[in-house]
Amino acid sequence: MAVLLTTSQTFIGRHVPDLKRKRHRSGEDGLESKNKGKFAKMTQSTLMDRRSLEVRRRVFRAENLHCDYFNHFYSREEAKTLMRDCEESLEYFTGDLAIVKLYGKTIPIPRKQVAHGDEGLTYTFSRVTVPAKPWLPFLETVRKRIEDQTSFKFNFVLINRYKDGKDCIGEHRDDEKDLDPQHPIASLSLGQTRDFVFRHKDSRGKKKTREIETVKIALEHGSLLMMNHPTNQYWYHSLPRKATQSGVRINMTFRKILRQAEDKN
Ligand SMILES: O=C(O)CCC(=O)C(=O)O
C-alpha cells in the first residue's frame, strides 16, 4: 500500500476553492485563493475551533494519477440527511440492469446500482447499457453543490449501494467511450468508510510489466474524491470486499456522458 500525499490543506467555510482555477505550478491549491487573505491571520486553534466548518483537501499523486480528496465535503449531519434521502427515494435497477457480462457470462452485481441524469443519456459499461432515470430534486441539489465548488459540469450520476462489507466492485477503469475522457469523475461517499484501491495498468496480474505501488484511500462519510484526467486511463480502481464491515455505504459518481455519437469519435 502506498499513498503519495503531496499536500494537506485546511479550508474554512463551506466553499471549496475552485479546483480548476486555483491549481498552480507547485501542484498545491487553495490557500492562494481569496480565503488566504481572509484567514491567514487565524491561529491554528481558531481553525480547530471551527472544525464543523472545515473542509480538508488531500492531494493524491502518483505516475499519471491525479486525485483530490475532501473528507468533509458534506458535514456529518448533512451527509446523514443525504443518506436518508437515498434510502427513502432511490429505486435501484433490477433484472438485466443489475448484471455485468464478463467472459461471455452474465453475473449479478454484488451491490445495487441505479443511474440518474439528463434526458436520453445512457452509459454502457461491462457490456450493459444503463439508461438515466430523471434527476430527483435532492440529486440535483448535490450535483449543483459539486458543480459550484469544482466548476465542472456533470450530466449523469451512477449510484452504487453496498449493503455491507460483503458487497464490492471489482477492478475496472472508467474509460468507456461514452465518457468525456478529459473530464473528472466526482465521487461522493456516504455511510460506512471503505477502502478504495487504485492499481496501475502495468502492475496487474500475470501480464504485470512493472512494480508500481497501489494507492489506497479510505473514503469517509460525506467525502468527495475527484478523479482527474488522466487517472482513469492508467489506473484501475476497486472497492474490495471487507467482510468485517457491517454498515451500508452509498456512492455517487457524477460523470460527463458524451451525448452525440460523433462526440465519441
Ligand atoms: O463505490 C465506489 O466508491 C466506487 C464506484 C465505482 O468504482 C464506479 O462507480 O465506477
TrEMBL record:
GO terms for cellular component: nucleolus; nucleoplasm. GO terms for biological process: DNA alkylation repair. One of its GO terms (molecular function) is ferrous iron binding. Its cofactor is Fe(2+). It holds the Pfam family 2OG-FeII_Oxy_2. It is found in: Nucleus, Nucleolus; Nucleus, Nucleoplasm. Keywords: Dioxygenase, DNA damage, DNA repair, Iron, Magnesium, Metal-binding, Nucleus, Oxidoreductase. Its EC number is 1.14.11.33. Transmembrane segments: none annotated. The keyword Chaperone does not apply. InterPro entries: AlkB-like (IPR027450), AlkB-like_sf (IPR037151), ALKBH2 (IPR032852), Oxoglu/Fe-dep_dioxygenase_dom (IPR005123). It catalyses: an N(3)-methyl-2'-deoxycytidine in single-stranded DNA + 2-oxoglutarate + O2 = a 2'-deoxycytidine in single-stranded DNA + formaldehyde + succinate + CO2 + H(+); a methylated nucleobase within DNA + 2-oxoglutarate + O2 = a nucleobase within DNA + formaldehyde + succinate + CO2; a 1,N(6)-etheno-2'-deoxyadenosine in double-stranded DNA + 2-oxoglutarate + O2 + H2O = a 2'-deoxyadenosine in double-stranded DNA + glyoxal + succinate + CO2; an N(3)-methyl-2'-deoxycytidine in double-stranded DNA + 2-oxoglutarate + O2 = a 2'-deoxycytidine in double-stranded DNA + formaldehyde + succinate + CO2 + H(+). Residues 153-258 form the Fe2OG dioxygenase domain. Its main location: nucleus. Substrate binds at Y123, T124, F125, D175. 2-oxoglutarate binds at N160, Y162, H172, H237, R249, T253, R255. It is an enzyme of class 1 (oxidoreductase). Interacts with PCNA homotrimer; this interaction is enhanced during the S-phase of the cell cycle. Interacts with nucleolar proteins NCL, UBTF and NPM1. Interacts with XRCC5-XRCC6 heterodimer. PANTHER family: ALPHA-KETOGLUTARATE-DEPENDENT DIOXYGENASE ALKB HOMOLOG 2, DNA OXIDATIVE DEMETHYLASE ALKBH2. This is DNA oxidative demethylase ALKBH2. It comes from Stichopus japonicus.
